[in-house]
Amino acid sequence: MATAGKVIRCRAAVAWAPGKLSVEEVEVAPPKAGEVRIKLVATGICGTDDHLLQGCFPNAEFPVIPGHEGAGIVESVGEGVTSVKPGDKVIPLCHPQCGECSFCRNPESNYCQKSHFSEPQNLLPDKTSRFSCKGKQIHHFLWVSAFAEYTVVPEYTVAKIDAAAPLDKVCLFGCGFSTGYGAAINTAKVKPGSTCAVFGLGGIGLSIVMGCKAAGASRIIAVDINKDKFAKAKELGATDCINPRDFQKPIQEVITEMTGQGVDYSFEAFGHKDTMIAALASCNMSTGVFVMVGEVDAGSEISIDPTLLLTGRTWKGTLVGGWKTRECIPKLVSGYLEKKFNSDLLITHTLPFAKVNEGFELLRAGKSIRTVLLF
What we know:
six-stranded parallel beta sheet, seven-stranded mixed beta sheet, alpha/beta, 17 strands, single chain
């Protein structure tokens, strides 16, 4: 390609400090050995990006290019890269799969020791950045930085997908849809005929609803303080929708009364300490499984009554829905192309990239499920 080996000047949304994004011209260096440069076509706006902009994401450094839910086409590859080539459609992954660490080699784990929970992903593995703007180094975010027309990532954070995939739709598979759907299917392992409660009806929460329905749950109780989300939740499979503000008593008591003993599975996709305790207490006290999906603010601690767990409840966490990312995200995309599920229903707004701040305003106002930005 004409651009291979050269610095590319392109647009990116830079957060110079916590707060607002500024669309700037940035320089994107060519990929080094083991790296891939991707031309992004579309990217979704996820609550985790807002978490970063609020200054609440662990170990984040500014200035930074956010975004971690993108899809694009390989522009060029560095020395030694064999799994993708220029022209391939790909999804850059916010959770790597190096294939070599003990977690990657464990068939029951989808964690990877190169994850941002093990080492910061503000710079590429060689501890340098591929981004600069106005003479300053710009940090990466989760190695993805999808709010840029071009990005550079390690090869083990790239999933090659079907050439027929519409990139403006499957960008959600980089985080939101995969995380929620997999939390139900893989992490909770929801059984047919079971009961579920889903707290928080954003893109991830509604993907959990879809996963619970696909797994055959007989009752799916959707919980949110924004009743405008209820129609979409019912369209995707929720059987009941409840607003905690409509009740005098704690919502866990309401759910326990609705179901007799609590649900079989509960999920928290909001990222709030109090909601997590309520979701835990909403599942039955013996075999109930609570899955924490939302991300709380960096440095948060949660106090719980230990008897909530003593009787047998399980508290689980999940990262990107338990999928081994490089292996499984392409299979999910194939499932989408085979119409096994309709994740398009999560996309409520599509905006040109220049309107990125407008997309965040929609998210904060609770008016969007997923906004997709097009480059």
